[in-house]
Design a protein that fits this description.
Number of domains: 2
Radius of gyration: 19 Å
Helix content: 25-40%
CATH topology of the largest domain: D-Maltodextrin-Binding Protein, domain 2
CATH architecture of the largest domain: 3-Layer(aba) Sandwich
Largest sheet: 6 strands, mixed
Strand order of the largest sheet: 2-1-3-10-4-11
Distance between the termini: 41 Å
Structural class: alpha/beta
Number of strands: 11
Protein name: ABC transporter substrate-binding protein
CATH superfamily of the largest domain: Periplasmic binding protein-like II
Pfam families: Phosphonate-bd
Organism: Oceanithermus desulfurans
């Protein structure tokens, strides 16, 4: 592969909502940065992880950014300004506030930043959560809540924002976080690390590009900022 050709992939949570926009994102990023970027789609997380050995560029959630750094030595490049947040939800009639989550079974998805953030925010509020019951997806967490299998749950805010009134029937929104801790991270393969300054400049210039600005607006991203180390994310894990 030519030194200026990159294969890219993005978090399935994001591409599930607007795949065409993400394809356009990488095309325009290539134009702005002077790099040739091809998109390698991953329909779900197993496929996303299976692509780690072969991709050069990835837009990953905070925990997956650590994973690809550990597995392949990827280097962080930039972080967007749309932070990953969590929504605390409960069956209607079962919770008025976070205090009602104390010592209760809590539905969530394992190894997801929203789950980590939710548990940390409960701890910071002095609320000790009970057993965490893991489900394969946020949709299945919500389904379990609506079935009455659990009374309390965490939902990834990006997933929650896509839900209509019918999907949330019988569900109480207890609190939506505004922690602004971390967002997804653009990560670059170590073999391509020499292209990091060029790629970073392209990401920073996207809001100035007419089509780039429209793409970012559709992705609810105002812009990117340099992100040089994943250590702050690792510090959060140690809390």
């Amino acid at each position: 592969m030519d030194a200026h050709q990159l294969s890219a992939s993005a978090c399935p949570h994001d591409t599930a909502k607007n795949l065409p926009t993400w394809i356009e994102f990488f095309l325009v990023l290539g134009q702005v940065s002077g790099l040739e970027i091809g998109y390698a789609h991953a329909a779900d997380f197993p496929e996303f992880y299976a692509r780690f050995p072969e991709i050069d560029l990835v837009y990953a959630n905070p925990l997956d950014a650590l994973r690809i750094e550990d597995e392949r030595g990827f280097v962080p490049v930039a972080m967007p300004d749309n932070y990953d947040e969590v929504v605390f939800v409960a069956r209607k009639g079962s919770a008025d506030g976070l205090a009602d989550f104390a010592d209760r079974p809590l539905g969530a998805v394992e190894n997801q930043f929203a789950t980590l953030l939710g548990c940390l925010l409960l701890d910071e509020a002095g609320v000790r959560n009970g057993e965490i019951r893991y489900y394969p997806s946020w949709g299945e967490v919500l389904a379990a809540l609506r079935r009455g299998e659990i009374e309390h749950a965490l939902l990834y805010k990006d997933f929650y924002d896509q839900l209509g009134e019918l999907s949330l029937e019988g569900v109480r929104t207890v609190q939506v976080s505004d922690a602004r801790r971390f967002a997804h991270v653009v990560m670059l393969a170590p073999e391509r690390a020499g292209l990091r300054p060029q790629l970073l400049q392209g990401l920073l210039r996207l809001p100035e590009h007419p089509l780039g600005r429209l793409i970012l607006a559709d992705l609810r991203i105002g812009g990117f900022a340099p992100f040089d180390s994943t250590e702050p994310i690792r510090a959060l894990l140690r809390c």
